[in-house]
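How a chain folds remains the central question behind the approach discussed here. For one protein, we set the task of working out the C-alpha cells from the amino acid sequence alone. The sequence in question and its C-alpha cells are set out directly beneath this paragraph.

_____
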Amino acid sequence: MSLLISLVPLSCNKTVDTLSRTGQSDTSLTSIPLPEALKNGKPTLAEFGRGTCIPCKEMKPILEYLALEYKGKLNVPIVSVDEYSSLTNYYRVMAIPTQIVFDGSGKEVFRHIGVWPKEQIIAQLNKLGIK
C-alpha cells in the first residue's frame, strides 16, 4: 500500500525564480544541504518549498536575511520539494512553504506553514536561545 501526499501551495502558482538542481536557493547563502545541516551541531531553519510558489518566493529574502544575520549560528537550507521528495515525505510536509526549526542535535522543535514574517521567526529563534 502506498501513501500519496499532495503538496498544496498556500497561494496561486506563477512562474518565478526556481530552486537549483541541488535543492538549494540560487544564492550561496542557503547552500548547505539539509542532511549536512542536521549533523553539524548548529540549529537549523529549513524551508520546504517550490520555486514556482509565490509564498515560497516571498520567503526567500527573509531566509537570505536570516542566513546572513545568524551566520555561523544557524543553518538555513531551502529544500526543493520536487527534487527532494523523499525528505519532503519523511518530514510529512503537506503544504508549501513549510519551515521546520531543528535544534543542534537535529530534533524538530517547531514547525510553521505559510509565509512567516521575519519578526516572528526571530522571536521564535530567541525563545529557542538562538540570538
